[in-house]
Specification:
Hypothetical protein af1432; mainly alpha; single chain
Length: 340
């Protein structure tokens, strides 16, 4: 019998990838055992499951930074996810890490984001006594909510990378560490691009002490970050503590640039002019569905039967909404219609 294609690909990983890479054949496995695919190694299979999920498709209509922008070229949560994936794959390929695992984590890392970006997340975290965090919600989606409550049954490595993608996280794989930094350099890059497009900033506004280190244009900055992460990480691969990192100089400029972006974009009234309205909308919908639990979809009713609180399943429903769907629900419930 010919060797399975999957087995050939797993053997190729052993031959090509770094000894520090996460090999598909060495995965810690899934929460539920299942028969392996004869073509795809486990991380490639996870990538495909996320890509074909409903929660991934909904990212196309979720806010990145600019709420309901007037223009076709502003980023959404989906385009952000794709840019994270591309940056991460470039880094992973250069370091001979597992690209399939890297891409799977990248595509799944923001599935739990609310409508209207971090504004919606802050509202749910304030209203829900159990708290709300989009990283934990992303894991909840792939574990419990996708496929009408069946979940995607992903591998441990992908799940670990998803829940640990924020700066406070501690990923258990180098591929997860790649995503942790790729997420940040992607959104600094494209949020600056969108801010320039929106007339909020110019490249010349970046302070010289930052620009002199990481570059004076969008392309220069992204190029600096990617090259620096690759070079600095390689330096650790022959030590007893390999890690994905930036050099001290670029890391300092990175955090200075982060402060600059928060001061000039993420808290800018011009960029966030509709944020208070969107937060009020999310809060109103939360209160409404908390009082009308019976209106939640069947798969969320089943979560209640399994012990989840009313607060948690309301968060599940609200956070799954796209911006457009949330607005439509609000209008349907609260805006009077013409009598016919």
């Amino acid at each position: 019998m010919p060797m399975l294609i999957r087995t050939q690909l797993e053997q190729r990983e052993k031959e090509i990838l770094s000894p520090l890479a996460s090999l598909s054949v060495n995965s810690k496995g899934r929460q539920r055992e299942e028969e392996q695919c004869d073509i795809r190694p486990v991380f490639q299979r996870d990538r495909d499951r996320i890509l074909h999920s409903k929660s991934f498709r909904r990212l196309k209509d979720k806010t990145q930074v600019f709420i309901t922008p007037d223009g076709d070229h502003y980023r959404t949560r989906m385009t952000h996810t794709l840019e994270v994936s591309q940056n991460a794959r470039t880094i992973a390929k250069a370091l001979r890490l597992n690209e399939d695992l890297t891409e799977a984590i990248a595509l799944g890392h923001d599935l739990g984001h609310t409508p209207f970006g971090h504004a919606g997340e802050r509202v749910l975290n304030r209203l829900c006594s159990e708290g709300f965090d989009h990283s934990e919600q992303s894991l909840r989606i792939v574990d419990l909510l996708e496929k009408n409550g069946q979940g995607l049954n992903l591998t441990w490595e992908v799940r670990d990378g998803i829940v640990n993608h924020q700066m406070s996280g501690h990923p258990g794989t180098l591929e997860g560490q790649v995503i942790r930094l790729s997420d940040k350099i992607a959104y600094f890059h494209h949020d600056m691009d969108d801010a320039i497009r929106g007339g909020i900033l110019t490249n010349d506004d970046v302070p010289d002490e930052i620009a002199s280190v990481i570059g004076r244009t969008l392309d220069e900055r992204l190029d600096t970050f990617v090259h620096d992460i690759i070079t600095s990480s390689m330096e650790t691969f022959d030590t007893d503590k390999p890690m994905i990192r930036m050099s001290p100089e670029v890391e300092a400029a990175f955090f200075a640039f982060r402060r600059f972006m928060f001061d000039r974009v993420y808290t800018n009234p011009r960029a966030k002019g509709e944020e208070n309205k969107s937060m009020g909308l999310v809060e109103t919908l939360y209160d409404y569905y908390a009082q009308h639990i019976e209106l939640l979809p069947e798969y969320l009713q089943k979560r209640r039967d399994l012990g989840d609180s009313n607060e948690r399943v309301v968060c599940d429903y609200i956070s799954s909404m796209t911006d457009r769907f949330a607005i439509a629900r609000y209008e349907e419930i609260y805006i009077p219609k013409c009598w016919q």
